[in-house]
């Protein structure tokens, strides 16, 4: 879509909305003027929620830099560091925030943008549209991206990214490097990142006496909750991906059959798309057979975890975007299921094959309203969404052995899982579990993680470490040949999120003025010690990024008003004045 067409669409929607509002309020216009003349405006004040230093040193330091810049331009700010699960509960479930700073972990494919920004999801909870963002031009572009054939997608995605950067529902700050450590004296062959579940199925035993592989977690949430659909407890979901199978796994930039033996695509008579999926022989961890009924149930359940018992559907927040692509799931026979898609092309539809398949006989009992001490919470929250799932029944290559809250999760290989005899595109990658136990051990800090690896008490870091310990890791690797340090570009990006449901963050020009306040080149050096890549757009580290949004030392659309981290306060304040605000006694007020 050309910039002229995109601007025209936006003007059309804005003018239509403005005309309707003026028509409805014409009789009260004089009254509004009288009230406006008597009302005294208050100085603007905003809160910034983020993660604490011991949980994520990057996020809180970016938040402090943003807070300092906002104060400099006359906006009072309050900084609120919160534990990880509480932060995500407030952001994703309660929508209780003004601004926040956090990492975003699923940003390496264009399909993630539709549930994140489409107005279809604005009233829902979870990772879909937590900003409360409504923009009809964005909706059209997101819908076009879903429908686009492979050859059309690059241009559609380029137009979509331009819209994201222009309207700033969130502000991308930087992509950090993933800093990971591992030992090779007990287990070798770490070809996959240990932030991926496939890594633990790909390693080989180096020491014949090594029976336990220990991976270190900087996030204690998996020790408290193993519910694969709990939005506030899951990021990359490495642990739950080992407990639950999906029809397909992403590898090498494509989704490849996993629980599915294969899938065949066909067009339907009404212009839709259908996937016919064959299933491998598999069993649940409680011994029951996994069938096509479980697969069909999963897709119905993810769309409505109340299964029709509530007045309105209660979708599984974490997988809403992917599951919403499936219009219907029907059983052909015990080993075959058909998934029907409306108005969706193959590239987008394939992502729907990566959701965890759930056992019907377990989750069918979790459809009622969530309760606390026997009292129902509300119909919009089912038990399935808040259940801690401390005794998970999956079909994955590993099953739960031991769960110790805030300490560790211990997994053991599942007998006769198909990954041991996998055929297909992943057979050269997966060799099956090379251990008798896999321990995910929580550690309180990056320094403790380094010490544990250096002492030989762990084999790998399952979550990325901060740049502050890189020197220590490199020193450990120099004195111990079994220690390896890997530094790779991360698919994760840090961002500032805005609650666009309320003023002043509902004002596009206000958000653009805020976005200018961070010198991202300076943030990379001062916050990430140079181990990050400044960016203006999501997908900035992929081939999807158009040249017009490439970072070349400064933001190509909203450049920082200043140099080397020093904000030119007068220039920055002028942006807020142009956005429709005024200054009184140095504080920013709404006009």
From TrEMBL:
InterPro entries: SBP_5, SBP_5_dom
PROSITE patterns xrefs: PROKAR_LIPOPROTEIN
Keywords: Signal, Transport
Domain Solute-binding protein family, chain residue ranges per copy: 255-585
UniProt similarity note: Belongs to the bacterial solute-binding protein 5 family.
Protein name, UniProt field: ABC transporter substrate-binding protein
